[in-house]
Design a protein that fits this description.
The chain has two helices and five strands, in the order H-E-H-E-E-E-E. With 92 residues, it is of the alpha+beta class.
């Protein structure tokens, strides 16, 4: 049940704007732990990757976030537009 709630919240990030700091903050709230984002290795896509590891909630898995960089920043400095979120939960 917990995985489905988290999955729905992760999917809710799509079509929204963030800066890297606000994205990390939002992910940390969703997953219930501090998240570290790493730049993806694909030269054609803008991607962040992260590991989800929260034993208290029984959550372990992987997360990929695809985004577009925006030329014009939003009011709060948002310069990332989330286009897709991919995740996989592993048995804990």
């Amino acid at each position: 049940m917990q995985h489905e709630i988290i999955a729905k919240k992760l999917e809710g990030l799509v079509y929204n704007r963030f800066n890297k700091k606000s994205l990390i903050s939002e992910l940390s709230i969703i997953i219930g732990q501090q998240i570290k984002l790493s730049e993806g290795s694909d030269a054609w896509d803008f991607t962040f990757t992260a590991t989800m590891d929260n034993p208290e909630l029984g959550i372990y898995g992987y997360l990929d976030i695809y985004y577009l960089k925006m030329k014009k920043k939003g009011d709060d400095g948002e310069n990332l537009y989330i286009t897709e979120v991919s995740y996989e939960f592993e048995p804990f």
